């Protein structure tokens, strides 16, 4: 997120230098990125127990961190606050903890989700139909996916589902399945051999007068 989408910098093709993004959110926002749960990105734990995480604990840890962050930077208290995230962030525990609280420090108003993992069945059915309708997979592979995978988890597919997914990836060619209208890109050739990866990065964006958790 920070270096590819909403952040202020882009990595140049040489891999050694940066350029400014003309579409950076920090033009209208103060951005703070949080990698979560512990062990993801730059986040860490000093104990093995701290690395045993789950959806509920991840939500609780993020809430504790936010409360501490607002105490350290009180100028951001009471501003309108939003949570935003991608993929598995849709599963994390983001309960509104302000019920019954007057003038809450974390003034939670809503959340935004990009490419969210919400429901395995409908996510799978929609994904497979998208691939098939756009010519990324053939009829037989589409049928195999619908037969083997609809109720499987993207994180832990069954052997039959994994075989069907591998067949689908092999048919993609050098296209990025998340941006199929872009030109083929040679460096994406390994996509047709790679298993599906779920990104567990969770981030916080603090707007000038609002706050976003991304």
Automatic annotation (TrEMBL):
Molecular function terms from GO: serine-type carboxypeptidase activity
GO CC terms: vacuole
One example of a Gene Ontology biological process annotation: proteolysis
Pfam family, any one: Peptidase_S10
Family statement: Belongs to the peptidase S10 family.
Xref: PANTHER family: SERINE CARBOXYPEPTIDASE-LIKE 28, SERINE PROTEASE FAMILY S10 SERINE CARBOXYPEPTIDASE
This protein's name: Uncharacterized protein
């Amino acid at each position: 997120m920070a270096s590819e989408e909403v952040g202020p910098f882009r990595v140049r093709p040489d891999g050694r230098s940066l350029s400014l993004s003309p579409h950076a959110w920090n033009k209208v926002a103060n951005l703070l990125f949080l990698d979560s749960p512990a062990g993801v990105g730059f986040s860490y734990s000093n104990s093995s127990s701290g690395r045993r995480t789950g959806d509920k604990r991840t939500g609780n840890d993020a809430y504790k961190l936010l409360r501490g962050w607002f105490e350290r930077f009180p100028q951001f208290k009471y501003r309108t606050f939003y949570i935003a995230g991608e993929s598995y962030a849709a599963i994390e525990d983001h309960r509104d903890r302000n019920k019954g609280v007057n003038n809450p420090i974390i003034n939670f108003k809503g959340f935004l989700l990009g490419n969210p993992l919400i429901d395995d069945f409908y996510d799978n059915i929609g994904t497979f139909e998208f691939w098939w309708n756009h010519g990324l997979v053939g009829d037989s592979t589409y049928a195999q996916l619908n037969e083997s995978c609809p109720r499987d988890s993207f994180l832990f597919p069954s052997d039959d589902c994994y075989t069907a997914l591998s067949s689908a990836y092999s048919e993609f060619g050098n296209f990025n399945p998340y941006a199929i209208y872009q030109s083929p890109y040679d460096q994406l050739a390994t996509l047709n051999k790679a298993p599906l990866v779920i990104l567990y990065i969770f981030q916080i964006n603090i707007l000038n007068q609002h706050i976003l958790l991304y």
